[in-house]
């Protein structure tokens, strides 16, 4: 049996594969990756994530608020996903107050550092609207 960490070995294999696939991938930095994803229209979000799936179910804004809460509770490590979710919440008609409340509520379960990180990311995304 090997003393090598299986996770480290898996990561190394993935990096080797990416380098073989595209040598530039070895220096890929995902910063700003979220900006590559377009924001869906409110109608499209409602169709795919809201009442289009279940007419008696949750609307898209509520589902996205739950998504933001979950992303915050996990420690707010999925920064791009938080940014994308905040952008979609804005398009779905969520207010700044609703977004802040969802993050603050999640802070009770995920901790203050996670809440602070998520709030910082959300504030950055919301400030983009101020600049537009």
Question: Would you mind describing this structure in some detail?
Answer:
This protein has 132 residues and is an all-alpha fold. The radius of gyration is 18 Å and the shape is globular. It has helices at residues 6-21, 42-49, 60-73, 79-91, 96-110, 112-131. Helix 2 (42-49) packs across helix 3.
Tally of strands: 0
Work out the helix count.
6
Strand and helix order: HHHHHH
Query: What is the CA-CA span between the terminal residues?
Result: 58 Å
**Poorly predicted parts:** none
Q: Structural class, from secondary structure content? A: mainly alpha
List descriptors.
132 residues; mainly alpha
In short:
The chain has 132 residues and is mainly α. The chain is 65% helix and 0% strand.
Write the layout of secondary structure elements.
Blueprint: H1 6-21, H2 42-49, H3 60-73, H4 79-91, H5 96-110, H6 112-131
